[in-house]
Amino acid sequence: MVEEHLRADLRDAHAVLAHFIGAHHPVCGIVLGSGLNPYAEHLVDANVLSYRDVPHMHVSTAAGHKGQFVLGRIPLTSTWVLCMQGRLHGYEGITSQDVAFPVWCMAQMGIDVLLTTNAAGAINPSFHVGDFCAITDHINFTGRNPLVGSEPAQIRERFVPMAHAYDAELLSVAQQVAQRHAITLRTGVYLGLGGPSFETAAEIRMFSAWGADTVAMSVVEEVIAARHMGMRVFGMSLISNMACGVAGADPNSAEVMETAESCLDSFTTIIDGIIQSLVANGCGQ
Ligand code: HPA
Using a 6 Å cutoff on CB, does residue 207 contact ligand 1? Predict the structure, then answer.
């Protein structure tokens, strides 16, 4: 049974976040996944707000997830973005609505584009560690959905179409940016599950038969909440490892963090390229 407090909690959080953002209008919200938190460090004029200081927001407990909002400018531009330096995962023992909460907060602040990122395992054997994969579609295998309960329906229609959850135009922009900079950007179907244990090789064979190219323990609940609010979504995974059993892989969390560190420059190039294109197209101005 989902408790009825979501709208009141969002109102409380909004008061604090609106004050934090002040007169700036972030062109997008960015969720930084495992190992990708350092992206926020290249922002200029940055201000930080700990999740601890946002009413009703849970604090990140996963390794390498700092647990703070960072508001800052893309270097050499006047474009502001709001980063989540660290995300919330279901395996941290929180509800699906808790995971989705910061995305609802972003939408409530008028942010209408979500760039969500993570580290993922490759099920598709043609992918390589260090590649990026833009998400074209997902399989929600978490067994959860943040729109369950009566309150999401009171905020907006809860029977959200998911056919075009990942924005075709943002994907195309990302592909152009990657091509321009000779960065390998794959496309694929992402399968999100609850974790925190990694998958078995048998599970990965099953996911492969279902058409999944990548797998990890985040993203899908955020994307459902973003689409609930009508946000445009771009999702991108860094392939941090081959999934269990693919080419004999037996992934662990240290491997996931190591790969991300070495791919940060390319990650920044793609994300900043998408943002520049959003601004060129008049978004968030
Ligand atoms: N499985 C699940 N989650 C992950 C993986 C994986 O292989 N890599 C990074 N996050």
Answer: no
3-class SS of residue 155: helix
Taking the domains of the chain in order of start, what are their residue ranges? 3-280
- 8 Å CB contact between 56 and 12: yes
Determine which residue's CA is closest to atom 1 belonging to ligand 1: 216
For residue 178, the 8-state DSSP code is: H
Architecture of the domain whose range is 3-280: 3-Layer(aba) Sandwich (3.40)
Beta strands at 132-141 and 68-73: parallel, antiparallel or unpaired: unpaired
Q: Tell me the pLDDT tens digit for each residue of 99-131.
A: 999 999 999 999 999 999 999 999 999 999 999
Ligand 1 centroid to residue 193 C-alpha, Å: 9
Q: Verify whether ligand 1 is closer than 6 Å to residue 217 (CB atom).
A: yes
CB distance 203 to 195 below 8 Å: no
pLDDT tens digits for range 10-24 = 999 999 999 999 999
Lowest mean pLDDT: which of 62-66, 184-188, 266-270? 62-66
CA diameter of the chain:
52
